[in-house]
């Protein structure tokens, strides 16, 4: 981003007008209500008119960054420890020194595909993939006030996907390009479109250059690229100027002079040189093209890396240029025009999709498409990992016997073991050809056992990640659920499959002890009875809940409903140790082995699918993860009353798990994010006699 600080007087004028509009908007928000909840930090609170406590559930931290889109992690230009990153459809404001310090900007309903920070750091713009929740695949752009954490403008016009966002150096304008081949330029004082044009192909490169005084209104120099006109016509040198005759802003463009043979390139990134004389462009070939702006002419092609030059960043003080390649190489170049020298090189894990120099010009942020985020010293390019994350839907999570360590698995076959004290990854391993992880459990605190789409059950050491054993073809289809029981007398593994079968395997030798094939559809949950480990419970998409006796080797209890496929099950510790099922109609049903029908029911207020249901270690609470992106907690002692709601995810929640001390809760979802919640209930020490 070719950011240059705006003058103090101009900045004061711009922000004074914004403050007035923000104040007026704030009065409207007080009466509207939902907007402030939507844009503020994730929280628990009032839900659908039901009074819930916002003191019981607190979002402590969110782990996430997919690297699906370029330049979606950027440093704040003036505050050295602050940076922004996209997590699903949420913009997170993070602190490098304090991982607990996070704030969230919510307004998008699809994954964020583009971001830009204004030169002063006072504004942030974010654009998204076209929504599927409304007709037309609209992809709005949101402009945020960094200081108030509120949205200033919702800019519409783009569809399909926003590709690029760029603030002008004086923060007067914001430019946005999209997959719909449209270019929009908005006025940041009014939020109105001052220029719009549809190209033959999407504009894949846009960079503001010099600003020239031109009477009452300045003119703006722009470099853009829209493929489709042939190699000679791809890169254009433009001027945005106000036409007093037509009373509108006009964009005048000329082709940049290219070599006579042309250069067939796909452009990935662009940056102005510190002296504003040259435009540096990264391409799919892996070279850096140099253009002289004064003469609008191509000057040089500098080979940098393989697999494309995806990201470019510039140190304005030293003139050093940092290039992030698709092959994971990060290189430091210095020079100008046709002469460039390599001054340093390092390799990161994955394709480098974001580079951003931090305030102070001593460090930079880098991020890769494998979800790894780095802090890099500009002097020697030494890199320190500041965060890792999943990049695909996280399907499952589980705690072992330790309260500070948990595991997650995703649809790409990646398993991670996390340390809650600093959110660092203890172990990261991938089964690339497995089709994805579907379920996960612990064997005490030493090993992880997981089920996969390829019908394998695999076990790994929780410290080293070494594979200990595997059970091939455990079911005819995916492994859909898993549970472990291990004590001094009995140790076995229970699996549920897509084929409707339930298998019981000896942990000692992994031999099949017994198999039940009673369900007509996929098994969605299995659990070992909390009082009698010889009893196993399973629920299925066929709307049945079954109980098996391992001693009698047969099914002993059967429950069924007419509609509402069961999506998960857990078991109460108090009362009659009823089984709790969550279904596709948003119901929690409580089942006693002595009664055919449910003994009680709790209806989700939004009737959202209950993708996961877990009774707390004390037995007092039950938590659910739903298709409405929310985590909900119900008090079983208080007749299943909804006591708190947590909004942390930006897409459907797929799984959750309690820590053994009931002080924390971890939820995962389709946004590839892990939400860590602090829970302040009274289940373990309230003196009620609940276990």
Number of helical segments with 4 or more residues: 2
What coarse outline follows from CA principal-axis ratios?
elongated
Quaternary state of this entry equals: single chain
Give the strand line-up of the largest sheet. Answer: 1-56-55-54
Termini Cα gap = 58 Å
Overall average pLDDT? 89
| Unreliable stretches covering 5 or more consecutive residues | 1-51, 686-691
Helix content: under 10%
Count of strand segments: 56
Amount of beta strand: over 45%
Structural class: mainly beta
User: Using only CA atoms, what is the Rg?
Assistant: 28 Å
Taking the sheet with the most strands, its summary is: 4 strands, antiparallel
Write the layout of secondary structure elements.
Blueprint: H1 8-32, H2 34-39, E1 57-63, E2 73-75, E3 82-87, E4 90-95, E5 102-106, E6 112-117, E7 123-128, E8 141-145, E9 150-155, E10 162-167, E11 173-178, E12 182-187, E13 193-198, E14 205-212, E15 219-225, E16 235-243, E17 248-255, E18 267-272, E19 278-283, E20 287-292, E21 297-303, E22 309-314, E23 321-325, E24 329-336, E25 339-347, E26 352-357, E27 363-368, E28 373-377, E29 383-387, E30 394-399, E31 405-410, E32 414-419, E33 424-430, E34 437-443, E35 447-452, E36 457-461, E37 467-471, E38 479-486, E39 491-497, E40 501-506, E41 512-517, E42 523-528, E43 535-540, E44 544-549, E45 554-560, E46 566-571, E47 579-583, E48 587-591, E49 600-603, E50 610-615, E51 621-626, E52 630-635, E53 641-647, E54 653-658, E55 664-669, E56 674-679
Keywords: Repeat, WD repeat
Organism: Triparma columacea
Protein name: Guanine nucleotide-binding protein subunit beta-like protein
